[in-house]
Amino acid sequence: MARVLVLFVHPGQRHSRVNVAMAKVAKSVDRVTFVDLYADYPTFNIDIDFEQARLQAHDVIVFQFPIYWYSTPALLKEWQDLVLEYGFAYGHNGDKLKGKIFLPVVTAGGPQDAYGATGRNHFSLRTLLSPLEQTANLCQMRYIPPLVLFSAHDSKNDGRAERHLSAYRTLLESLRDDHFHLERALQSDLLDHENLPIHQGEER
Under a CB-based contact definition with an 8 Å cutoff, are residues 108 and 154 in contact? Predict the structure, then answer.
C-alpha cells in the first residue's frame, strides 16, 4: 500500500465551483494525507524542514489546484521554491524524492478546445504545466499526466462534476492500493474521468 499526500492549494476557496468539493473527497479517503497549504501557511511562512520530512514520508505526491493565470497559485510556487531545494530534491546528494510518483490534479475555467495551438490560450494545458513536469524530472520523480476538469464553472450543470469527483476518489484509492497502471497513464496526454488507468478488474 502506497502512502499518498495531497497538497491542496486554492487561494479563493469561497469562489470555488468544484475544487473545494474535490478537496472534501480527498480529505475523506482513508489513509490519504490531506493538506490545505493556504490554511497551514496563510502568511507564506513555510516550515521547510517539516515539509521536506512530510514529502519523504510519502510515496505519491499530488498537487491539487485551480489554474491561475496559466500556472499554479502563488503559494504553491513559493512552496516549490523553498522546499524543493538543492541538496534535497536535486543536485549533489539531492535524491530524497527519487522514484516517488508526482501527479497534478487541476481544474480549468475554459473548455478543452481553448487549450491548443488553434485555441484562444494558444498552448495545450500539458504544455502550460510543463514546468511541473520538468521539476518532477529534475527531482527524479515519476510524472503522471495531469487529471483535468475543463470548464469547471459549468461542470455542476452538465453532470461532469459528479463524474469527476467519483473519478478523483477512484484515482486516489488506486494510487493508495497500488492498482494504478503507471505505464498506461504515461501513454495519455491528460487524464479525466473517462480514461483512468486502473489495473483491469479494479475499475469501479
Answer: no
State the amino acid at position 119 in one-letter form: G
Contact 46, 61 (CB under 8 A): no
Closest CA to 182 of 132, 142, 129: 142
pTM beyond 0.85, yes or no: yes
- The DSSP line for the chain is ---EEEEE--TTGGG-SSHHHHHHHHHHSTTEEEEEHHHH-TT----HHHHHHHHHT-SEEEEEEE-BTTB--HHHHHHHHHHS-BTTTBSTT--TTTT-EEEEEEE-SS-GGGSSTTSTT-S-HHHHTHHHHHHHHHTT-EEPPPEEESSGGGTTTTTHHHHHHHHHHHHHHHHHTT-B-HHHHHT-SSB-TT---BPTT---
Over residues 135-162, the pLDDT tens digits come to 999 999 999 999 999 988 877 778 888 9
